[in-house]
Design goal:
- The chain is of the alpha/beta class.
- It is 49% helix and 8% strand.
- A hairpin with a 5-residue loop joins β2 and β3.
- The N and C termini lie far apart (104 Å).
């Protein structure tokens, strides 16, 4: 019995000595707050420039990517959810200072705003999560049947393409190679990415998004596996009932459709262009008319990337963090567009991707082909044709 007790005592003593040794050898924290960061209230970027920028609305817009009025409304909506308590130890970082719109890497922000990198990381994550939670029900709720009708009206007014309830496409969000991910995030454009799949309206606002699929996946598969894609291919989306196309009141009622490039699978509610170069004139005109509506999603991505500069380089964060940032930027994109309108400088990069880079998908439904053929006849009919469409195809 004494021997067993001595063994236990020996083990306990060895454990305590080892723990004490580790504690002694552990690197002590040199500063509670680094001397550089102590100067934040006087010398940090926010405290130096914020009030100065407010005196110059155009410069404020360039820096914060929105007007002063929109910024104040955003702080009013989300500020209470990111405001921290005052303590005897320190003054918390204000909600206004937590909004970082430069797109600069965290290490650079550390020296500009005089905050620790870990603090900036936590602030960006928390703020993006709050922005998505607060703004998504307001700015990106799933459209109602009436909303789809309004979207279709907007598309016809601007592009003369009928029964169009949105343009859909995928965008590769560039990230650094995640650890132990192999080739999952390596895309056909030869960089690492995750995919933003989106549907937009004719005002360049995102109505449905899906973020986070591996970069190696095709647009078609990502869309089919998304929650909205599953509903569409199962014919469960709350689209309006079929109706005659504008100016075709004696014709056959047609479904409401999304427009996409040829990487997507043809469906009665999703139209894509005819593939190949050996097409007759009618189909070439249809492809042109479809592209006029489809380019809205390309321009939406261009405006998104131009405004939120984090998309102009690789995100040096883990994929799940990149998803949070992307979702916040998309909902902020809608928030700003609906308040500050269209800014030409934000749309300089809205060119359409080359169709040659897309892989076509076959096995379309028969009724989907019938729907597309009906649209072909509609856009080629003399009463619905655009005066310049024949010249565009070189006819």
């Amino acid at each position: 019995m004494d021997i067993a007790l001595n063994d236990v005592e020996a083990v306990c003593i060895a454990y305590l000595l080892n723990k004490r040794h580790k504690k002694q050898n552990k690197t002590k924290r040199q500063y509670w707050v680094h001397p550089l960061n102590v100067k934040r209230p006087q010398e940090g970027q926010f405290n130096i420039t914020f009030m100065t920028l407010r005196a110059h609305p155009d410069k404020f817009f360039d820096y914060y990517r929105m007007s002063i009025q929109s910024f104040d409304e955003l702080v009013l909506l989300a500020g209470q959810h990111i405001q921290k308590q005052y303590t005897n130890m320190r003054i918390p970082i204000s909600p206004e200072e937590r909004y970082l719109a430069t797109g600069t890497h965290f290490s650079a922000l550390h020296y500009e705003f005089l905050m620790g990198v870990s603090t900036i990381t936590k602030i960006v994550r928390e703020t993006c999560e709050v922005l998505w939670t607060i703004l998504q029900p307001i700015e990106m709720s799933e459209p109602t049947t009436h909303d789809w009708l309004d979207i279709a009206e907007g598309y016809f007014e601007k592009t003369q393409f009928p029964n169009t309830v949105g343009a859909v496409d995928g965008k590769h969000i560039r990230i650094e190679c995640p650890r132990n991910s192999g080739s999952l995030y390596y895309n056909y454009k030869n960089f690492f990415s995750l995919i933003l799949m989106a549907i937009c309206d004719s005002n360049y606002c995102f109505r449905i998004i899906n973020v986070g699929s591996y970069g190696k996946e095709s647009d078609c598969n990502v869309f089919k596996m998304s929650a909205f894609g599953k509903k569409l291919y199962a014919d469960k989306v709350n689209f309006p009932p079929e109706q005659c196309l504008p100016g075709d009141n004696q014709g056959v009622p047609q479904p409401f459709v999304l427009v996409a490039d040829e990487a997507f699978a043809l469906n009665k509610n999703l139209l894509r262009p005819f593939p190949g170069r050996t097409l007759n004139d009618e189909r070439r005109i249809f492809n042109y008319r479809l592209s006029r509506a489809r380019q809205y999603i390309e321009c939406s991505f261009g405006i998104l990337s131009k405004k939120w500069r984090v998309f102009q380089t690789s995100m040096l964060v883990e994929p799940n963090f990149a998803v949070i940032i992307t979702k916040a930027c998309c909902v902020l994109h809608n928030f700003v567009r609906r308040r500050d309108g269209y800014n030409f400088k934000d749309s300089l990069d809205c060119s359409m991707d080359s169709i040659a880079e897309k892989r076509g998908v076959g096995n379309s439904q028969t009724n989907a082909k019938d729907v597309r053929e009906y649209f072909v006849k509609y856009v080629n009919h003399s009463s619905h044709a655009l005066s310049w469409q024949s010249k565009i195809i070189g006819k």
